Amino acid sequence: MREVLSLAGPRKTVRDRAPAVHALVRVWWLAAGARLRIAGQLDPETEFAPAVALYREGISALIGASVVAVEGEVLPADVVDIRTAWGALERIWPRLDLGVDLGEFATARRALCEAIPLDGVPPEKAATAAACGEMARLVALLERAIEPRTARELAAYSAMRIAAVMAVLVVALVISVKRLLAPVDLALNKPVTQSTVLSTRAEVGGAYLTNGRLEYSYGAATDNSPDAGHADPWIMVDLQRPTRVGKIAVYNRGDVNFTDCLPLILEIGADLSSMKVLDTRKVLFTRTEPWVIDHLDETIRYVRVRMTGNSYIVLDEIEVYAP
């Protein structure tokens, strides 16, 4: 990892080159760059001829840079045209150590080295796409093999990589610390019971109410169908054992009818025979501004919200926290 971040390999390559050789590598590489960028943007199906013309000039220059990188100089005869340049590439290919057989680029070589007839049958679209794909792959391999960047550029790239990794690590550390320090929801995934259950939530039995996520619509709902009994509806969370609590937060539904369940009574108790009213909510609360009762010091097992009369209750989430 240290070598990747510091670009140790490329920096050693540049250090080991004579300055004049590296300068010449850059001259040829820069000569290739503009042509190859444009060639890569052309559509091989409709602009094959201009793409090949640009690839031909750009790859010749890139081969010149490769010859300098391997042999320390480039002879005019090596890059007089693409055919001789390709011959020079065959000569130095083993020394580039790319792990790829140059024969894999036979389609690219034919497209580069053979003239496109102006009055002949145009190549098929599949053939043009394959040829341009091979040329683009060859360009990528050669650019990676010759290392044209200066020592200063490599140092700057290395610093940016290290800074990016450090930023990611800092963010990850901050998130981890926040998670470690965040209060634990004592109601998370605890059982929920209801006076009645709306059919669309029947299969989960109110489990959405304590799943730790705010649903877009709601987490639990008592039955509100016309033929259901609506008298004194309630929804209750069972913490499963006596638990000391300091804060309770109740989140309203997030879709519609936000005041239908008001006024809402919140009760707590260590057992069902000793439930007591903790608070009554008469004004609107939401998903983003929940109904919060804190500064408590109670040992309880049950948290129940209920209404009196014929109505129904729909809530998004109930959370319970230690003091």
- The 3D shape can be described as elongated
Which fold name corresponds to the CATH topology of the largest domain?
Four Helix Bundle (Hemerythrin (Met), subunit A)
CATH architecture verdict of the largest domain: Up-down Bundle
- Total DSSP E strands: 9
- Give the % helix: 40-55%
What structural class should be given to the helix and strand makeup?
alpha+beta
Write the element-wise H/E pattern from the N-terminal end onward: HHHHHHHHEEEEEEEEE
Strand content: 15-25%
How far apart the termini lie comes to 44 Å
**How much is the average pLDDT?**
88
Strand arrangement within the widest β-sheet reads 1-3-8-5-6
Contiguous helical run count: 8
Number of domains: 3
What is the makeup of the main sheet?
A: 5 strands, antiparallel
Report Rg.
36 Å
- In the CATH scheme, the class of the largest domain would be Mainly Alpha
Contiguous uncertain segments of 5+ residues? none
Describe this structure in words.
By secondary structure, the protein is of the alpha+beta class. It folds into three domains: 8-149, Four Helix Bundle (Hemerythrin (Met), subunit A) (Up-down Bundle); 153-182; 192-321, Galactose-binding domain-like (Jelly Rolls). The chain is built from eight helices and nine strands. The protein has a five-stranded antiparallel sheet, with no helix packed on it. Strands 2-9-4-7 form a four-stranded antiparallel sheet, with no helix packed on it. Helix 3 runs antiparallel to helix 4 (48-71) and helix 4 packs across helix 5 (82-96). The radius of gyration is 36 Å and the shape is elongated. It starts with a helix and ends with a strand. The mean pLDDT is 88.
